[in-house]
Amino acid sequence: MEQPKFIITTDGHLRLGMVCQHKDLLVGSEQCLGGGYYQFDWVGNRLILDRASYDFGRPRWHLLDRLMVPASFRGLRIVYLYDDNEDFCVSDELDIEYYESHE
Fold first, then answer.
1. 3-99: which CATH number, 3.10.450, 2.40.128, 2.60.40, 3.50.20?
2. Model pLDDT, residue 16
3. Which residues of the chain have pLDDT under 50?
């Protein structure tokens, strides 16, 4: 069953999609630094990331300085919620670079 999942790649791309497995979001020989699930909080204008990928584990944000995000998500505050309800505000902690997706 497809679910809203995300991954972060070793080159810093945030990739989201409705997939069965997190590894389905990888392109070619890309490597992954973790992933989880996502949802949109339209009222709070946020992209909420949470939980962990069964394939790759929790995102390892500390290995990134910059996150490349599809331009269609520009204007949304990106937040990762840990299991203990601790928020990691990705938008504040990492440099965000937006790019035009050709998919």
1. 3.50.20
2. 96
3. none
